[in-house]
Fold:
Amino acid sequence: MSSVAPPAPIADALSPFETGPETPAGKYLRSYWQPVRLSRDLEAGKPMPIKVMGEGFVLYRGTSGKPVITQAGCPHRQTMLSLGNVEGDSLRCMFHGWKFSADGRCEDAPGQGPRLAERMRIKTYPTHEQYGVIFGYFGEGEPPKFHDIEGFSKKHGQDMMSALVLDCGTYRRNCNYYINVENALDLAHVAYTHKLSSDPSITEVGFDPAVIRIRDVTVERMDVGIRAIEVELDTEPVISTVMLPNAMHLLVPQRDGWMEQVAWRVPIDDESHLSFQITAMHTDEEGKKRYDAYKARKAELIAKYPSTELCAEQILRGEKTLIDFADHPDLVNIEDHVAQMGMQFINDPGKENLAQSDKAVLQLRRMFMSRLSDFMSGTPTLASGW
Structure:
């Protein structure tokens, strides 16, 4: 099944969709830390190829334990360095044995003169590992200070680092990353997109059934981005914040307490993206026991099915329906996969009919484009508190 790709941009126009190396949005996203892999997925001594915003890189972990990101190809003959061997904290190309240190210096070039090794380097990129996630910085100059996730949570959430359950995860979605960025503020979709996963008579885990109703939202413009808060008297509201350019913070009731999540939508290319999320469950001891018990069975349940994006493609082709995946541990994601992968990119305002419930999405679009314009003009707006 073909993936959802944005249309070609209007000449000389700024666009949030295209994130290749020389695109405005690509340069903008590269000026922030971006997650690239979960820590548990990077085994020491085994380099792996990764693709971020249309560019190939190599990710590996040496004996020191620190993750290293390098350019994709060996400067000798452009063989993929991900095929090489990790030696200590260095990487040796499998083609002719040229060896490069974690800071990019050529330490050995068998059969070559010493002067070649002295002048030969590969490009490496800053990394940061925390909360079970590996981040890379792909922009120019020194990287910015790493996100104050704990401070943001204490100020705008529920102190997620003190939660009884703290976990991290990732998924792939075959559509442009920006669709998923906007979706974080589209609270009106929950009542319909997640109707099945929120029904405790059908599913074991999911949203609290109380979220399955349409409520008005208030929209707050913050230094870091846009926040949508459901308006409801005498109840705790669902709160979702997009921190520009592509991160989010979510507070939503669950059946065993509250879920708090910080996530990033990171382009693989313009037709697909990865999401990385750090998730806290604010629950009691009994809720934690139920969470742990379900997690222990999760791998067995997932093994019954293909990947979530393939499940969604089966539904989009009409071969399956959502009810066929009612016991899938990632049903919530499958529901979002179906909605977002089934969208068509709308570049013609006459085809898209935004309404009252889209006011947070509209505010985000305006703020994203304003910040992108400032960034490209060399006068970026500094974000605080994140």
